[in-house]
Write a structure and sequence with these properties.
The complex is a heterotetramer, with two copies of chain A (328 residues) and two copies of chain C (281 residues).
Chain A: H1 5-29, H2 35-53, H3 58-65, H4 73-77, E1 82-86, E2 98-105, E3 108-115, H5 121-126, H6 134-150, E4 154-160, H7 167-171, H8 174-187, E5 192-201, H9 202-206, E6 213-217, E7 221-223, H10 227-235, H11 241-247, H12 252-258, E8 263-265, H13 276-295, H14 299-312
Parallel strand pairs in A: 3-4, 4-5, 5-6, 5-7, 6-8
Antiparallel strand pairs in A: 1-2, 2-3
Chain C: H1 5-10, E1 22-24, E2 31-33, H2 34-39, H3 55-62, E3 67-70, H4 88-99, E4 105-112, E5 115-122, H5 133-149, E6 153-159, H6 167-186, E7 191-199, H7 201-204, E8 213-217, H8 227-234, H9 245-250, E9 256-258, H10 263-274
Helix pairs in contact in C: 5-6
Classes of the chains: A alpha/beta (328), C alpha/beta (281).
Bound molecules: zinc ion (2 copies).
Amino acid sequence: MSNNLIVEREKGLVELERRIAELREASAAQPLDMSAEIAGLEERYQAILRELFGSLSPWEKVHMARHPARPTSLDYISRFDRFDELHGDRHYRDDPSIVGGFAFLRSRAVMVIGQQRGRDTRENLRRNFGMPAPEGYRKTSRLARLASRLQLPVVTFVDTKGADPGISSEEHAQSEAIAVCLQTFATARVPIVAAIIGEGGSGGALALAIADHVLMLEHSTYSVASPEGCAAILWSDASKAEEAAARLKLTADDLRRFGVVDEIIVEPLGGAHRNAQDVVTRTLDAVDRSVARLSSLSPEELLDERYEKYRRLGEWQAQSLQPAGTAQ
Amino acid sequence: MSNNLIVEREKGLVELERRIAELREASAAQPLDMSAEIAGLEERYQAILRELFGSLSPWEKVHMARHPARPTSLDYISRFDRFDELHGDRHYRDDPSIVGGFAFLRSRAVMVIGQQRGRDTRENLRRNFGMPAPEGYRKTSRLARLASRLQLPVVTFVDTKGADPGISSEEHAQSEAIAVCLQTFATARVPIVAAIIGEGGSGGALALAIADHVLMLEHSTYSVASPEGCAAILWSDASKAEEAAARLKLTADDLRRFGVVDEIIVEPLGGAHRNAQDVVTRTLDAVDRSVARLSSLSPEELLDERYEKYRRLGEWQAQSLQPAGTAQ
Amino acid sequence: MMREWLPSRRARETPRNDAALWVKCPKCGEVLYRRDLAASLFVCTRCSYHFRMSAYDRIASIVDGDFTEIASEVLPSDPLQWSDKKSYQTKLKSDAENSGLSESVVCGFATIGRFPVALGVMDFHFRGGTMGRVTGERITRLFEEARRRKVPCIIFAASGGARMEEGMLALMQMAKTTAAVARFMEDGNFFLVVLTDPTTGGVAASFAFQADVIVAESKAMIGFAGRRVIEQTIRQRLPDQFQTAEFLLEKGAIDMVVDRRELKEKLVRLLEYAVREPVSP
Amino acid sequence: MMREWLPSRRARETPRNDAALWVKCPKCGEVLYRRDLAASLFVCTRCSYHFRMSAYDRIASIVDGDFTEIASEVLPSDPLQWSDKKSYQTKLKSDAENSGLSESVVCGFATIGRFPVALGVMDFHFRGGTMGRVTGERITRLFEEARRRKVPCIIFAASGGARMEEGMLALMQMAKTTAAVARFMEDGNFFLVVLTDPTTGGVAASFAFQADVIVAESKAMIGFAGRRVIEQTIRQRLPDQFQTAEFLLEKGAIDMVVDRRELKEKLVRLLEYAVREPVSP
Ligand SMILES: [Zn+2]
Ligand SMILES: [Zn+2]
């Protein structure tokens, strides 16, 4: 049994999908008209999909964001018109949990940087489950500085449980690595567009997400801490993660309302992996539009707008920042 | 037996020094006038000193530069009016072979950075015999950048056989660390004064010595490679180090003539360690004078002059650069 | 704020939850008379254990005299309408009562060794020093005002990280403070941080590690991930030394470790290098 | 320089000291026909071993057509009047005869994929690619002129380090080239380096590792200290992989490892990101 709620739910669907496919095949091979039967099954299938995925709770979205088949950074990056990967922090190591390099997005040269989890166990081990070490954040800072030097817009893909919490990461000053990354993004003299495509976990995610325009997939999550971590910290009980997920306001809708996210990319019913092709295309379109718009600004305008954006975020007075749906 | 030529030579002197001291003591305790005898011995002592140390060959200077009692960076730094050490490369490690921090030199705030070998075996092990690892050069770059930000002049003390040639130094990109150090010094917007106080070995020494004014102690050496290394590379025979020392033009006089060094600090007969107090004082005076002069320049003037200085150094045409003494 | 602010504020002494006259040192077990402990800046006179210090005690121990607080009118609210066992509002109120603070940081201007400085002091007694919107807002205003005044900024960090109960709005304070710090530093101003026990998570990973000079108090626990999280991840106990100030010094992450009793003198020395023009008394 | 420069210069092919028609691959032992080897850019057709390449062969393999050399009138002299078994002058002469070069670097301007670039190519066949005064002077002039023209600069590094026979004047070229690179880059110009076998010492530790993007050829030996020096220091044999391009990639020191046969295409791709405006043909 998978520990992913969504994967579990999908298991029933597989049987239905198989039956529809079989009927279609039979129908094509026989003179018998089975179109009514097929249509009936398909209607039922769609109804089940709507029932299962039509309205996802925050906790369900957490599982959707972690779905093993959900498109990862490389699924987006490979759909750029071209990608030339750059490696290393120039000091200590190349961290495979961060992938970055030059790319063309529609005929526009950009620097793209993404957090990359594995798409199977082996890759997950190699990529440390998408949790960057300090070397990964230092690679990120280096590439962002290079982009700033060469006047290339920066595009980032955020998909991490969080920064790596291991011993050597502490020994190599994880705090410093993230802090410098934040400072680099805050001061880069080029447009920055970030897309939260999966799990956006804590400061380790934010390190790649200080941006002039932040996109977020409908079922992605972006959170001050993982629900499990939050529950452990506040209630010493990780099993209360579902409750934490609900309280943390980590959904795209909530964050759009708070102004943390600027634009939401709608996902197909059942999640991005059910039509990855389409989701990636629309995401890249949205990134492209933002980069195009931001490219008309001077570096000074960009920096001023970026400063003001984050300056206003979470301003203390604004009662209007409260999510409309939860107002009492 | 010491493997240091100078230390060996000093052994005979010790006996003479002891006898003079004994006579002095005896003379004070007795009514007998021994002043003539004492004067005679002292004259002899001075004569021997002149004979032993009056004119040092390049190879002898190599040994003088490595003399275990020769004042080290900390012997200079401790004579600043104040010193507050700063540590670490902020990434990986604090390298004890580089000592740096804020200091007051005569009432002027500066950033001081020096290569520090050990003054005994234990300290030598801790300080890696004064051979900096990449972390040491990264600490140096960090402090130089900080000085540039705070508009503090930079004072460096150079005393190293060379950069550490170990496995982990290669793994941590020693080349990159030195290259960045050079670039940082080339572009620092504050006066830089470097003093070659002991052995100036290769790129690992130069990393702290791109400066607006370079001082060199009379018996220090500053060389493209250690004589042993040079002999090993060119002749696969490290025992020809003495010959290499002569050829390499590594003495203060040679380098002053080439324009690599701007000013020579004269040492007492027998070397700096015979009157460290005086040598340190005169060195700090000279550093102070240079810093004072350079402080009147704007950052742009400083950078232009520094650029031109190194631009001209080793210019290909200039026959006049040939040491006068060796012209044929 | 008037000169009298100090004695009145100082009436509340660390550790606050212990109303007794005697305090037991958690490290050496020595029983210390509260007034002696305060006189030694909350450092155990026997083993030098550094008790966690309240913000106003800290300020009093560092500034020359007056301290002009800013942004004290910026007060926390409850953007997520958070409630678990208690509501977030209730937690804020009870922390305010226990700590005498309205948020996890106190910001203002003062002189230290006659140097005018911007001073921000975090307090672990308020929500574990976590950074909420108001923490971020106050720190941001401090850097913005310090930039206008062209004075150095000193922050005493003490934090469990970003505050859960304000969700992403808390995390965004990392971005906001970072941007303010960057502008402040780009103008050539001096930023010094003192890491006190404990400094972790979103505070460590934003403004704290962006400082020009990073000082840490003896034995302070400093890191990104919490000790428990790491132990759970690697499934083994960490050495005691791990994530201490002394450990970080060896690892090159910080500039120096200082005993609290020598801290003010050290800060003044450091200011003398960076500023070089103390005001006349 | 005229269009005809290439065929005449290319007559001299690597490896130069072997006049025979056949060359044996030092890695796999395959006997290769010299013309085939040249056609495959001096990469063994069987095992992909990359032979060291001469500067003009390299240039021919990279540029679109013409190459306008600069600073070829800057010629080495003998500042230290060096002489050991042979005089330095004699060594220079014999290296010049064997390599067809007047110094260890050839600098000039060309187009690569229609991008105008400054191009500096070091050659290990001249004094082991060591950096003397003229090497430094030529590279410095290249960066200065590239800065004036606002074109990217590409350097192919191959070096045993600073040249002993010119003493400290050789070492000072690290400072000189660094200063020129810094000025060039401060103006926002793009600097790319290709590390070829071997790149060590003073060249690795100055301009080579200052580049925006660092490419290395497959299996190239790259490091600061020479392998022998390290082995003598640690008194043990190093693993074969140590200091190879692939090793450095894993250690995060370089951006990518490229097979020589794909190098030109890769360089053009990289220029397209950094420059974005190739000239019309
Ligand atoms: Zn105690
Ligand atoms: Zn072969």
